[in-house]
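Case study: UTP6 protein.
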Amino acid sequence: MAERIEQRLEDRVPELEQLERVGLFTRREIRAVLRKASALEYKIQRRTLRKEDFINYIQYEINLLELIKKRRARIGYSFKRDEIEHSILQRVHSLFNRAIGKWKDDVQLWLSHVAFCKQWNAKHQLSKVFSSMLAIHSNKPALWIMAAKWEMETQLSSESARHLFLRALRFHPECPKIYQEYFRMELMHAEKQRKEKKAFEQAKMDLGEFNYSEEILNGEMARIVYREAAQKIKGVEFHLAVLSIAKLFDFAQDLQKEILESLQTKFADDPLTWDYMARRELEMGSLESTEKTTKQMKASEMTQREERCCAVFEEAVKAVPTENMWKCYITFCLERYNRKTNSENLKQKRLERTLSAFNNAHESSLLPEALYKQWLQLLLESSLFEKATEVAEAATKRFSLSVEIWQMRLQVLIQLKSDDITQCFEEAVKQAKSKGTLPLWTLWVDWSEGTHSKEDTEALYKRSLHATTPAESVTMKGKYLDWAYRSDGYKKVRRVFASLCENRPFSLDFFRKMIQIEKEQEPCRMLHLREYYERALREFGSTDSELSFKDLWLDYIKEELSHPQGKPENCGSIHWRAMKMLQGDLVEDFVSKYTLLQTGHL
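Here is what the predicted structure looks like once written out:
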């Protein structure tokens, strides 16, 4: 092994001598490079190889290349690149090849090699990398697309890109993304040929030796790709994706028309088809911008276009009366309403249109649950408080088991300071099942704290502990503890803590809150702190794997050591108990932190 490493270091000597001779590096820096290279070489020659060692070596060589590049720019020296950079580049490629040979399944390693080749313009090497990578990772469409794009955009080879896409489709015959990118590539190739032909014609050159097929120039290859894909891929999303690609090319008007007709024929009942057809109206019939075009004219034109869109949507919700169709319509209305405009008339029309869409969907019982919240927000913003109350009530009747809907209605009533809030809370917890009602109880007690007496609020807290599930009651116990301390002070919170300790389950945060409250007192009693720690450790001292529970033992020991009333002699027994109760990796972590604590480093 040593001989092999020495040979590799000797291979570096010519490039290092050149670096010193031309003044890019000093002799001291050359020695430092050799020492570092020697250490890195030994790591990658060990019997047990580690990926991190190869990555570190590669990163070091890349950093060296970057440093040489900066030094060259600083002193203005641009010669001897073959003797210096070339040998380093070859070494990096060799390191990548060795690492990839060992860890073939690591896609990120392959991509790092690809990125390195692109950065240093190693086109010949990159072609080999792509070939090897696709042979091993042929099951990943994104890698085929990456390789084909490189051939098309960097190598300017449409034929090689087409060949890669065809190979990819043999492995992934129903992959929409591959078809989309293949479709895009054929249109780009057609556009490229059209530009070449136009340039030759402008230069009045003879096109006899160049073969520019009219079919290819008009995007016939892309049409073939689309038709082939349309037979295999069933879904409106694919057709919309290729249509958006085709729209980027002015010469593909006929192709766009064919895709649109196919879309309307095959997916006439799909909401996304209607959504696209409606939004198309925004792009049609726009005024050309001239000096005489006023803001009022632009606003008027935009109003007309949006009305045409809405007319299509109105037709759509009659033809396809589904929740998804209404969702598309309302989403469009909200998008337009949220767009900034200086025209108050346009903004008002957008608001009226949006509210009308919400109302019609609601009356048809096809408004999705998630959109009720947006409707209520819009009504409140528009100061339509009475309507907001009606809508919230209607939503809870339709989705009576939904906690989110009840919470939304209650928030509206609280914001409007209604007299029916308590009655609504009672109805909400009655209608909604006990599981998942935590948000309702949290909202109820928060509202009660600001509006009701302490006695009523405490009764509500006690009621919530029984009404929620055991897991949810943990949160309510923490809130109850906080409220007791804020409202009536230390003595009250001690009584509440004692009563809550009789009913499991608990959270660690519950005990930590009580410990923190005790520490804020003057004087802070160690006897009480010890009680809280002991209770917490009985619950969380052993089986849980979270580090916070392990830290509980350390905090207890620190408390005994630092508190004026603490007993340092107890630390040994606490340590012994911790070692006995903690399990797995927590033991090792506890021992290391306990050692740091003893030496004063924690």
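For the exam, be able to explain this: Confidence is low (pLDDT under 50) at residues 287-291.
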